[in-house]
């Protein structure tokens, strides 16, 4: 018999939340563990991490320009984060050597900042920043267009942001992770864009990566039940061509992910808190 994930606390009164979660678990749906439901203290800590993470990306936005290297972006992120009492979560995470991910054009995600990667007119770049503050994590990314780019790249960046917003609207209390992915996939399909399937959003807050996996494609009513108190990211990676990707064989760290056809890719990301009314954005 499958072990239940949602355990009642002995002696504690059964709440409406308990009843709703157990209803879906008894129907065979995947539900969170209690540990994924953040306490008010944890939520406040994650919110503070989110404010710093947003401020870091704002600092990048003030300084990013044609002719700068992605290594300069890394320095901005490290200096601003540490000056304000935080820690860049990517630094030395499973061998990642820098403080931020900088993914240019066909690099889908996990681009490593380098002195030789110089931003040029027309580039699109994703800057993905995760901040630890007082033991709590917040995660977000933004797209930047360097100077003027092509109409095709502009549309890709815009549609990727729309995918995030549509996914956010689909995230409702006591609905399912698959509802998010289904809504995103439908929107991307209108433009014949590929939604990357090898990477996904994730729970976050008490650790860099927690349950659930938040896929950006799929069927409604599948995946984990979304319950108030859960904190997670939505971060669709939208490719101009195929959804398939590969890891750069020349990357000594094994991190950089590139679109298989080497066409441009775009991504936006926020950290969200699920509430009884819907999601609250904790990062911008």
Automatic annotation (TrEMBL):
Protein name: Methionine aminopeptidase
Pfam families listed in its UniProt record: Peptidase_M24
Originating species: Prevotella koreensis
Biological role: Removes the N-terminal methionine from nascent proteins. The N-terminal methionine is often cleaved when the second residue in the primary sequence is small and uncharged (Met-Ala-, Cys, Gly, Pro, Ser, Thr, or Val). Requires deformylation of the N(alpha)-formylated initiator methionine before it can be hydrolyzed.
Assembly behavior: Monomer.
Assigned keywords, A-Z: Aminopeptidase, Hydrolase, Metal-binding, Protease
Documented EC number(s): 3.4.11.18
Record: residues binding substrate: 110, 209
Transmembrane segments: none
GO molecular function: initiator methionyl aminopeptidase activity; metal ion binding; metalloaminopeptidase activity
Keyword Cytoplasm: no
Residues the record lists as binding a divalent metal cation 1: 128, 139, 269
Entry's cofactor comment: Binds 2 divalent metal cations per subunit. Has a high-affinity and a low affinity metal-binding site. The true nature of the physiological cofactor is under debate. The enzyme is active with cobalt, zinc, manganese or divalent iron ions. Most likely, methionine aminopeptidases function as mononuclear Fe(2+)-metalloproteases under physiological conditions, and the catalytically relevant metal-binding site has been assigned to the histidine-containing high-affinity site.
Domain Peptidase M24: 44-276
Chloroplast recorded as keyword: no
Residues the entry annotates as binding a divalent metal cation 2: 139, 202, 235, 269
Database matches in InterPro entries: Creatinase/aminopeptidase-like, Pept_M24, Pept_M24_MAP, Pept_M24A_MAP1
HAMAP family, alphabetized: MetAP_1
GN (gene name): map
Cofactor names: Co(2+); Zn(2+); Mn(2+); Fe(2+)
